[in-house]
Amino acid sequence: MSNKDHITEAFVQLGRFISQFTAESADKKENIPHNDLFFDGFKHQIKLAKEHNGWFTQQNIQYALKGWSDQLTEDALQDWLKSYDLTTTNPKTVAIIMAGNIPLVGFHDFLCVVLTGHSVLVKQSSNDKHLLPYLAKYLEHVTPDLKGKIQFTEDKLKNFDAVIATGSNNTARYFEFYFKDKPSIIRKSRNSAAILTGSETPEQLDALSDDIFRYYGLGCRNVSKLFLPRDYNFDAFFNAMYKWNPIINEAKYANNYDYNKAVYIMSEFDMLENGFLMIKEDQSYASPIATVFYEYYDSTETLKQKLEIDQDLIQCIVANNFSDSEIPFGKTQKPELSDYADNVDTIAFLLKI
User: Fold this and answer.
1) Which keywords fit this entry according to its UniProt record (predicted)?
2) In the β-sheet with 162-166, what is the strand arrangement from edge to edge?
3) How far is CA 311 from CA 24, 92, 140, 253, 343, in A?
């Protein structure tokens, strides 16, 4: 077995380890390597992550872990990697500056760097600092070859050859200046949109509610903007959203809902709301928590032209028979391994640095 195969196998074992934590109560399984050493510790890290960040609820952490346990299988990893020549890597040190908006949001970059044979230097967001270092320790235990190749730092980055950085539009400008002499992938703020025609089935709109509310709408893959035909009737939309109404009982979400509602009322903005979600006509893509923006379109052709112009603002588009690159309803927070952020192939970048 080659070193690359050892590393891939380590991630398969990690997927099996993570699968124990995808239900309300962790389920300790047999035949998981090093489980006695790591199981209780990871339960504790999940507890710390929830205490540290109020947006990281048990349900949201479980959902993120379930997504990764589903992807970290031998079949999925081999199918993803088969189109790349991983023997060509010239090992370097790659720094990753991670966002912290949803649990383990930087894991895909971490996976790409380690699988391509590079060393990784991770600077985590303070909002999401408990889960990944522990999972990295598990990987090192499964494959000791990785020891010394995975580092975490809270200090200024130094001694690295390339960088993958994710942040806001403001921090991206800083990153572009600071890392101008290094090979880099620098990601700015993006949001996702859904295109409705009025002929969606109840099942499609039900799935759309997951795209809107999962992770409280904090992810770049969450739908924060709707494009609607002029005569759109909102009744079916609001009916489909209703299953998420318990979200208003969660304090951080409710505080944002109350605050944004007060701002809209005082500003005399027109908006529709149902007690836990507001929708407001607005040309922006990035809507506040508990709000979805919408915009009308007159023809699919003009809408396609607009989306082409705005492509750097958009992470993904949810639709039914609108374009080749669309994502089905309900799938935004279930990305495949080959669904690269900003459509930039991270593996291809890492193989040529």
Assistant:
1) NADP
2) 150-152, 119-123, 93-97, 162-166, 184-187
3) 38, 32, 39, 29, 10
Instruction: Write down the H helix ranges in 53-87.
Output: 58-71, 74-81
Tokens of 26: 């962790």
* Dihedral sign computed on CA atoms, order 199, 325, 227, 264: positive
Q: Note the CATH architecture for domain 3-188.
A: 3-Layer(aba) Sandwich (3.40)
What does the domain layout of the chain look like in residue ranges? Answer: 3-188, 191-318
**Pairing, β 93-97 against β 162-166:** parallel
Burial state string for 8-46 with b = 16 or more CB within 10 A and e = fewer than 16: bebbbbbbbbbbbbbeeebeeeeebeebeebbeebeebb
The C-alpha torsion from 245 through 45 and 94 to 88, rounded to 10°, is -90
- 266: helix, strand or coil: helix
Q: Is the dihedral of CA 88, 122, 288, 214 positive or negative?
A: positive
User: E strands, 154-312, where?
Assistant: 162-166, 184-187, 191-195, 223-229, 271-273, 278-281, 291-297
pLDDT of residue 89: 72
Q: Measuring CA to CA, how many Å separate 51 from each of 26, 57, 62, 153, 209? A: 17, 9, 15, 22, 27
Torsion of CA 326, 331, 336, 341, to 10 degrees: 60
Q: Taking the model in full, what pTM does it have? A: 0.95
CA distance 122 to 130: 13
Chain segment 113-154, per-residue pLDDT in tens: 999 999 999 999 999 999 999 999 999 999 999 999 999 999
Q: Quick count: other Cβ atoms within 10 Å of Cβ 193?
A: 23
Backbone conformation region of residue 138, classed left if phi is above 0, alpha if psi is from -120 to 50, else beta: alpha
**CATH number attached to the domain at 191-318:** 3.40.309.10
Backbone angles phi, psi at 194, to 5 degrees: -120, 140
Structure tokens at 241: 């959203």
